Amino acid sequence: LGQLTHVGVSQLLAVGQALRAVYADRLLFNTSTPEDFVVYSTKYRRTLQSALAFLYGFLTPELLHNVVLKESPSLQFCFEDCACPTSDMYLRKFNNEKSKHLNLHPAVLKLVNSASLIVYDVYEKNLASDPHSLRDALLTYVCHGARLPCSTDKSLPTLCVHTDQVSGLLSYIEWEARQYSRSPTLRRACVLRAYGMIRNIVSYLVRIISEKKPKVVLYSGHDKTILYLATALGIAADSTYLSHYASRFIIEVYRSVNKATAAIDSISSDYYFRLLFNGKDMTNRVQFCKNMLNISVINTKGLSQSLFLCPIHTIIQFLHNDYFALFNASNFKDACILHSK
Prior knowledge:
Elements: H1 6-23, E1 37-42, H2 45-58, H3 61-66, E2 69-72, H4 85-103, H5 106-119, H6 131-142, H7 163-180, H8 184-211, E3 216-220, H9 223-232, H10 238-241, E4 249-255, E5 271-277, E6 280-281, E7 293-298, E8 304-311, H11 312-322, H12 332-338
Parallel strand pairs: 1-2, 1-3
Antiparallel strand pairs: 4-5, 5-6, 5-8, 7-8
């Protein structure tokens, strides 16, 4: 379970190739150097393998050979802003909320318990009551077209996992994900967990404006990475609460051609960003974005569509002035101390 499967590799290769077709000309890959690409991965083998598979499809062999991968010790890419008792407290509270949800559905709890006896080689109490771990284990069968697992233990009430059980489990998890949007506890936890990553992203946005590089910054992470980031930015949706394999969260940077000759500084209003999750424009959901542009463009199918752009200075101001408003604090340290009880 700890490694990327051949199906996962093929998915990431396809994503890399698709995005190369979109961005290679725009970002002038033919004149790029390895320094134009910054790559981070968490310490897990599957995220490192995901990054390599994606880059193999995304970059030319010459660029790929010289790109340096940097390891992040945390799955939320928190860098210098990791330790936070408040965040831990809110996550514990949220896990309690999830446990209460599950206990209100005894049929699902029974399903998880009985299927766990079949799926896992060694029975562990915490796994036997965790629908998410069971889903991950069962998807290794479903996604590869393999037969669902069976047991040879005749003492078990059922010897095989059935498709209706998988469907029931997935339906419950999808229902549970829809409840996440109502949880202020989860939102607070995500805001704190995502701070280090958003701070890192903003620092690169400023560098892109002032130094014109790097051209691409890649973070190869987890579903929780997307959950924290999307929730903190205020663009959470059912799809970000339960992101599928090979999901991609993209921040594009644009410069207004009408001001191309204007003098710029690190937070110039000439620059804008756009957020896409699995190809869907999520920019218009960003609550802190003021003076958003709505541009009508012709897509590859010849159809008109709206393109939303948010001034980059708004995310910089949000990070510096309003990010910790939920906690009545002005910085990460105070937010983590004031609410740690």
